[in-house]
Amino acid sequence: MAVRQWNRRCRVLGVPVRTDPEVAAIRLANDLELSWSTGRPTRMGWVRHAGAALGPLYAVVQLPAKRSDGGIDDYYVKIGAEYYDSFPPTVAFVQPETWVQAGPGSKWLPTIGAVPWFGLHPNYNFPGEAAPRQMVCFTFTAEYYMVGHSPPESTVWQQGKHTVAATLYRLAEVLQPPYYLGRAGQ
């Protein structure tokens, strides 16, 4: 488990450490199944996608985004359990069927307006990585903790309390007005 340090105002987490892949895959699958068993994700229009190409550590969830004119745009979010559940899942908006990360200007990448607790960076330079990649940035994504944030204690991922469902519900929130502004490209 990652080392957690404390100061008076904020909890500073260590960099995510990969978890046992077999255990992480089971936890992710169980938490997704538990969430879907409530019926709420289905009522919200969410769809789970699976397939051998993804592997046991990953799932893709199709989330509807509601435009201000009432129209709907679907997005596909790849969830990874590499650090789960000591840390939140990894998260990326991906292209359907190929599950490749959506790049800048892609129609599979949403445009999100100002949200104080959320950021979407199509090309982020992660420390120690040769090439930039997408970063969905809020406290319920593993990527958030890879770049040295110091969030208020009340917003920090808590193992045993939070699950992948919390990540998905927060994403669903920014895919609604007034935050969701449309597709990044055509």
CATH class: Alpha Beta
State which percent range the strand residues make up.
25-35%
Total discrete domains: 1
Our count of helices gives 3
Q: Main sheet: which strands, in order across?
A: 3-4-5-6
Would you report the number of β strands? 10
The H-and-E topology, N to C, reads as EEHHEEEEEEEHE
The radius of gyration over CA amounts to 16 Å
User: The biggest beta sheet, please?
Assistant: 4 strands, antiparallel
User: In terms of structural class, how would the helical and strand content be classed?
Assistant: alpha+beta
| Separation of the first and last Cα atoms | 42 Å
Into which percent range does the helicity of residues fall? 10-25%
CATH architecture: Roll
CATH topology: Ubiquitin Conjugating Enzyme
List keywords for this structure.
single chain; alpha+beta; Ubiquitin Conjugating Enzyme; two-stranded antiparallel ribbon; 3 helices; globular; disordered N terminus
Structure characterization notes:
The protein has 186 residues and is an alpha+beta fold. The protein has three helices and ten strands; from the N terminus they run E-E-H-H-E-E-E-E-E-E-E-H-E. The strands form four sheets. Strands 3-4-5-6 form a four-stranded antiparallel sheet, with helices on one face. A two-stranded antiparallel ribbon has the order 1-2. The chain has a two-stranded antiparallel ribbon with strand order 7-10. The chain starts with a strand and ends with a strand. The N terminus is likely disordered.
